[in-house]
Design brief:
With about 160 residues, the protein is α+β, with helices and mostly antiparallel strands. The protein is built from one helix and eight strands.
């Protein structure tokens, strides 16, 4: 065999090996994608939303009157933004202005105290150790007296 012929054969073998290597890399990447599809990451708690119930439907920011009670709770969301279907750790509730409203740190029962605005916060730590919080406003309106009857005296 001539020297040129040997070099061409080596180059051809080298090109074949490069194509095989590229094919193996493609196959490996496809297998990784298939594994991801077959074994997706389980949903994890990634965010929470503070909501109040006691009215017609749960809502975030809430307006209540003095003396009115609503109950705070949290809704969880997974890493994809979907509602979290797993167990949500018990949150702790706090309020920044107890002269306007109070909130029980465990039960979330919120009571309007006087007219004004306060911020309620829910906090918890996920099973993965992620600290999650959400804050919503609580607006308290004064109870407006309503005239319900009139008594006329002709003395």
């Amino acid at each position: 065999m001539s020297h040129d012929h040997e070099r061409r054969e080596e180059r051809r073998e080298h090109e074949i090996l490069e194509r095989i290597w590229e094919g193996i890399q493609l196959e490996t990447e496809l297998l990784r994608e298939i594994i991801k599809l077959l074994h997706p990451h389980p949903p994890t708690l990634a965010a929470i939303k503070l909501v109040f119930s006691g009215g017609p439907m749960p809502q975030g920011p809430v307006t209540i009157s003095v003396g009115q009670k609503v109950t705070a709770s949290v809704v969880g969301f997974d890493q994809n933004g979907s509602v979290f279907s797993g167990t949500i750790p018990t949150p702790t509730f706090a309020i920044d202005n107890s002269a306007v409203a109070t909130i029980d740190p465990t039960s979330g029962i919120t009571v309007g105290v006087s007219a004004g605005v306060a911020n309620a916060t829910a906090s918890l730590t996920s099973a993965e150790g992620l600290a999650l919080t959400d804050t919503e406003t609580v607006t308290v309106t004064a109870v407006v007296p309503v005239l319900s009857s009139i008594k006329i005296s002709f003395d």
